[in-house]
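User: My collaborator sent over this chain with a note saying "see what the structure looks like." That's all I know about it. Can you take a look?
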Amino acid sequence: MSSMYFPARRRLIALGAGLGSAAVLGSSRPARAAATRAEIDRDVRAATTHLRGMANAAPLFEHAHAILVFPHIIAGGLIVGGQFGEGALMRAATTQAYYNIVGASLGLLAGVQSSGLAMFFMSETALVALMHADGWEIGTGPAVTFLDQGVQANVTSSTLREPVYAISFNQQGLMAALALNGTKITRITPA
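Assistant: Without extra context I'll predict from the sequence alone. Here is the result:
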């Protein structure tokens, strides 16, 4: 296991405590030690390098106006679940802003997983919607098309018509898939 995943373990423990607190207090924000700007930047660089090595992501990189990368999203639950991660919005090779992603869900859930998420903003309108939102809930605003590995194989520059595409990567754990609907992305200011 690479060293870039050790902070994720610390965040997983904090996520469990934060999810319990959030459920009791009704808060959508888990109480935890936030990653520093340097930690987020390091993890985003590593994740972007990994993504650039994925042959099917090339058309997305080629046409995206910006990319929001969450290198580590920790998700877990038993009937009631949640997920949390921190990342950065990249335009060319420049960090534009930092964000977190938080979500809660109900249902037949059991397990814990860690995965990364990259969201490719294909239009300036979709990017402006993210940047000007005071917390963007996925499922409202610009449509997000989740590309699983089978769909990724068929992505070409001529088939890219949606405002935002999402790809998960580096999935480890026991849950089946990363859920996006109902998650909220909020701008943060890390130390």
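A starting point for your reply to your collaborator: The longest helix spans residues 6-25.
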